[in-house]
Design a protein that fits this description.
By secondary structure, this protein is an alpha/beta fold. The protein has two domains: 6-129 and 280-302, NAD(P)-binding Rossmann-like Domain (Rossmann fold, 3-Layer(aba) Sandwich), CATH 3.40.50; 133-272 and 310-322, Dihydrodipicolinate Reductase, domain 2 (2-Layer Sandwich), CATH 3.30.360.10. The protein has ten helices and 16 strands. The chain has helices spanning 15-27, 41-48, 60-65, 81-91, 105-118, 133-144, 168-187, 274-277, 279-294, 303-322; strands at 6-11, 31-37, 55-57, 71-74, 95-98, 123-126, 150-158, 191-197, 213-219, 224-230, 238-245, 248-252, 260-262, 265-267, 301-302, 326-327. Strand 13 (260-262) and strand 14 (265-267) form a beta hairpin. Helix 1 (15-27) packs across helix 9 (279-294). The relative contact order is 0.16. It binds nicotinamide-adenine-dinucleotide and 1,2,3,4,5,6-hexahydroxy-cyclohexane (INS). The site of nicotinamide-adenine-dinucleotide has 24 residues, from helix 1. Nicotinamide-adenine-dinucleotide (NAD) is lined by residues 11-17, 37-40, 43, 60, 75-78, 80, 98-99, 126, 128, 174, 274. Pfam families: GFO_IDH_MocA, GFO_IDH_MocA_C3. GO terms for molecular function: inositol 2-dehydrogenase (NAD+) activity; nucleotide binding. Keywords: NAD, Oxidoreductase.
Length: 338
């Protein structure tokens, strides 16, 4: 397999899936898109348009089970991931699953158990910040040790507006799930407890949602991480993280790029959403996943990482309503992920 192109099937052709379709077809090497599955036929057809020989299905299982599909990219909503992941594991093919692995820890654990039973890592979770050059540099800097031990991290995660149907719980398991993963990945330790506080809400929040929310994450060694999650901030997409260490600080996600001076004002621009902000990270993620899949492995967050993030999300969702500091319940890490 390592000498020939990876034949990829895409399941879910919405915002993220169609972006990945273009990426597989045009921006990465060693892989081609051979099938797209979405219950919405028009979306599937649009994603496959112009790609010679790319078949279109309305039944996602037909893509996962197609004999000419070597690997799958899963870009359906998180609540639909479990059965699709289990089907890919059953068939023994690699799958890049968009975050979250699943929205709750019980279903995430079932995915981990299926992979453990299969005896090999097939699932990679699409935590793309791990491939962002700024985040990668922050990780290298923290691990090099010149700043001393990390004590605190301050994160801001802002979206211009939440899509219809987005709930308060999704602010945790669909959005803050990124900070749960980056915390574990940057610091190399588990999350032990989560608290959530609610400041005065923006009038732009739909009914039933208070927005923004302030999440506090505690880690095993006692680092505290604050996350402002604000999904209807109105002005654009902004993701920041500042690590405060014994000997200094390091920050990523600040304003950079071109600034202009025009009509008596100066300034730059803010990305409208995750696609331009993390394009380089997504490209790198897909390239490294495809290379690893051809070699029979994964190169990124594992199903275990997705499961640990889901356990933190579950504590976060409970903390949202109780107002209490909520410990994270995480099972022991299976040997497959040592
Ligand atoms: N990494 C990131 O920054 C990032 C950004 C956006 C979305 N995502 C993730 O990507 C996934 C998709 O999000 P989106 O914004 O593209 O959603 P979307 O609603 O735009 O698209 C989802 C698509 O999945 C299809 N679908 C629904 N159920 C299905 C099923 N059972 N089988 C096959 N297709 C099904 C829908 O018809 C739709 O076309 C989610 O897991 C989301 O969290 C990740
Ligand atoms: O699915 C999206 C995506 O993961 C974005 O990166 C995040 O900023 C949004 O909050 C989330 O809803």
């Amino acid at each position: 397999m390592s000498n020939r192109e990876l034949r990829v099937g895409l399941v879910g052709a919405g915002l993220m899936g169609s972006d990945h379709a273009t990426r597989i077809h045009r921006r990465i090497s060693g892989a081609s898109l051979v099938a797209v599955g979405d219950p919405d036929l028009e979306r599937a057809e649009r994603a496959a348009a112009g790609i010679e020989g790319c078949q279109v299905e309305t039944d996602p299982l037909k893509v996962i089970e197609a004999s000419d599909v070597d690997a799958v990219v899963l870009a359906t909503p998180g609540r639909t991931h479990e059965p699709l992941l289990l089907a890919a594991i059953e068939r023994g093919i690699p799958v890049l699953c968009e975050k979250p692995l699943t929205p709750d820890s019980k279903s995430s654990l079932r995915v981990v158990e299926a992979e453990v039973a299969a005896g090999r890592r097939l699932v990679q979770v699409g935590f793309m910040r791990r491939f962002d050059p700024e985040y990668a540099e922050l990780k290298r800097t923290l691990h090099a040790g010149a700043l001393g031990r990390p004590l605190l991290m301050h994160c801001a995660h802002r979206n211009a507006s939440a899509p219809p149907g987005f709930t308060s719980q999704m602010m945790i398991f669909d959005s803050v799930v990124h900070e749960f993963d980056t915390t574990r990945w940057l610091l190399g330790e588990e999350i032990t407890a989560v608290s959530v506080r609610h400041p005065r809400s923006t009038a732009n929040a739909p009914s039933g949602m208070t927005d923004p929310q302030l999440v506090t994450i505690e880690t095993a060694s006692g680092v505290l991480v604050t996350v402002e999650i604000f999904v209807n901030c109105g002005f654009g997409y902004q993701v920041r993280c500042e690590a405060v260490c014994e000997g200094g600080t390091a920050q990523v996600g600040g304003d950079s790029g071109m600034t202009t001076h025009v009509r008596g004002a100066w300034g730059g621009s803010v990305a409208p959403d995750f696609r331009p902000r993390f394009q380089q990270a997504f490209d790198e993620e897909l390239q490294r996943w495809a290379d690893a899949a051809r070699a029979g492995g994964i190169d990124g967050a594992s199903a275990w990482d997705g499961c640990a993030a889901a356990a933190a999300c579950e504590a976060g969702v409970a903390a949202q309503t109780s107002g209490a500091r909520t410990p994270v319940q995480l099972v022991e890490r299976p040997g497959l992920y040592a």
